[in-house]
Amino acid sequence: LFSILTTVSNVYTKYITNLVIISISLLLINNLVNYFVFKYYDDNDILLETKRSKLLRLDSLNKSPDYIFIGSSRTQNHIDTHLLSNSGINSYNLGLPGMAWRDHDILIQKATQYANKAIVISVPAKALFMNIGCPLFPLIERVFMDTYKECNVFSAVTPNIRNLFESTNKVNSESLDAQKKTILEHYDVELDYLGNKINYIRGSKDRYVVFYHNGDSVVFSNRALNDPDKKAHVYNYLGKKFNDDAIKYMQYIEDKIIKSGKKVIFVIEPSSYKYTYLVDVSLLNKYIKSYTIDNTGILQDYRYWSDRGHLNYLGRREYTLLIRDQLLNNSK
Questions:
Q1: What is the pTM of this model?
Q2: pLDDT of 270-292, one tens digit each?
Q3: pLDDT tens across 22-59, in order?
Q4: Distance of CA 193 to the CA centre of its chain
Q5: Which of 21, 178, 179, 196 could form a disulfide with 214 if both were Cys (CB 3.0 to 4.6 A apart)?
Q6: How far apart are CA 324 and CA 107, in angstroms?
């Protein structure tokens, strides 16, 4: 019996040891990849649009922006800062793919150091009625955040496998030209008219994302056009109480930005052709002192959308022009 227990113990110990070695190896690989991926790149190189890279690029701007936009991939794809600059609005798009608004804390800490006038924060309408939850940023950032000290940080130490894939996503000029040609033929649009110099293109089949050197991007897709169900699913939040934690988080964000000496503007994001959220945004004025923009009921025609979450290049232009007017009206 003792021999059997010893054998089992040795096997178990070996298994645990191998598991630890594999885990440490993955973490080291991830850190090495991060080291190379998140360094600065000039205009001659292809800059990956990862979370840290866009934060780092704030340090390399020649001129501090008046406005910094914070949000998810919707912000990154819906705001054309090149078009805003044509109207005299100097801005930087800090919209990040996969970014939940509960993760905005670390972005705000960075943005308040650079924005001359205001931080513009996009908030999904449904988020006003949901618990905030824990942020998803890596452990080192989460430890030094001012909020969510009570959150379980175990998941933060797991390797970010997505970055491993993104690190291999650089495309050479021939591949880029081929993808440009595919999009041009499919959408009959000249990409150079849509913004600054193209950085790289990522995608496959019927969906491409074009990234620009100024940090913006735009989705090209025929998914919305091919969706047989054009009828929107309506979520009626009229008369429903805002989530207490959501309101407290908005107040926390507002207070933090105001204390930095900057203004904060909240933008409640537009519903898509697929999902319509009925929300009385004016009720936020009871809790929020800052300028709050209600964009939930605009651009609901499916022809403005690439998919159920992102505007296409047509919707992007219309939305940017609307944001331009809203910012100019607020500055008067």
A1: 0.77
A2: 988 888 899 999 999 999 999 99
A3: 878 877 776 555 544 444 333 333 344 555 567 667 77
A4: 23
A5: 196
A6: 22
**Dihedral of the CA atoms 7, 13, 15, 21 (nearest 10)?**
-150
- Beta strands (DSSP E) in the chain are 67-71, 91-95, 118-123, 198-204, 207-212, 217-221, 233-236, 263-268, 275-278, 291-294
Strand partners, 95: 71
- How many residues appear in the chain? 332
**CA-based end-to-end distance of the chain:** 85
Q: Which residue in this structure is represented by tokens 């009959």? A: 188
Q: Residue 192 carries which DSSP code?
A: G
Find where tokens 């006003």 sit.
128
Q: Which amino acid is at 297?
A: G
Cβ(194)–Cβ(210) under 8 Å?
yes
Among residues 119, 57, 69, which one has the least CA distance to residue 93? Answer: 69
Q: Which two tokens stand for residue 232?
A: 């929107």
For 93, other C-beta atoms within 10 Å of its C-beta total 27
Tokens 């169900």 belong to 229
> What is residue 95's DSSP assignment?
E
3-state secondary structure of 9: helix
Spatial CB neighbours of 146, under 8 Å, sequence gap ≥ 6: 105, 256
What the block records as the tokens of 76 is 């990154």
Position of tokens 């009925």?
Answer: 278
For residue 145, the 8-state DSSP code is S
User: CB neighbours of 80 closer than 8 A, spacing ≥ 6?
Assistant: 194, 195, 216, 218, 316, 317, 320
- Cross-strand partners of 123: 268
Question: What tokens does 310 get?
Answer: 């992102």
Hey, is 211 helix, strand or coil?
Answer: strand
